[in-house]
Amino acid sequence: xxxxxxxxxxxxxxxxxxxxxxxxxxxxxxxxxxxxxxxxxxxxxxxxxxxxxxxxxxxxxxxxxxxxxxxxxxxxxxxxxxxxxxxxxxxxxxxxxxxxxxxxxxxxxxxxxxxxxxxxxxxxxxxxxxxxxxxxxxxxxxxxxxxxxxxxxxxxxxxxxxxxxxxxxxxxxxxxxxxxxxxxxxxxxxxxxxxxxxxxxxxxxxxxxxxxxxxxxxxxxxxxxxxxxxxxxxxxxxx
Length: 239
Prior knowledge:
The protein is built from 5 helices and 12 strands. The strands form 3 sheets. Strands 1-2-11-10-7-12 form a 6-stranded antiparallel barrel. Strand 1 (4-16) and strand 2 form a beta hairpin. It has helices at residues 41-44, 63-72, 122-126, 224-228, 232-238, and strands at residues 4-16, 22-30, 33-39, 48-55, 77-83, 96-97, 107-113, 118-120, 164-166, 170-182, 187-191, 201-206. The protein is mainly beta. Helices cover 13% and strands 35% of the residues.
């Protein structure tokens, strides 16, 4: 990956573009992140950097964490995360990465922990249907119903939807557009929604797909037919 930063989800709002069209966005407090450790080929077998985010009292850290950060000569940080950046060799311990590592128009992937909903039924968890609310239906409108045949295979197949823990798992949303960056406020504004509750920890990385169709932009060089709205081969055949 080329660029990455750790941030905190502030919440959602909306902004307007130059044409007056509303854009739903998520505001992220991104950085500043401090390089707390540097990995290299000689000692670790790979090149990467460890970033620290969020100030915290040293008494809140374990002894190994406190000793690790004290050895690096940086203040106590609440969150540590390692990234394999392309410019990792150029960074040194103590360097600061701010929100302006990204710019408006960049496409990124956002990783976070989704909201936890506890133990939920199949209707809320998977969007299953209930039975008709008619007379004689009985008190089983939200029950699971048949799970399969009793004769053969006489078992429930893997992947069958059912009740269980909902949310509270790592989720990555790919190919989101950076709408605005403010380095002074440590703010990155992202088009659309991202995982997690307000105040949740998120990781921002440059995208691995870079498909701009999602934001309405069209790459003419990749799809000339879509850009022009017609098929040039059929047009030439018609003369």
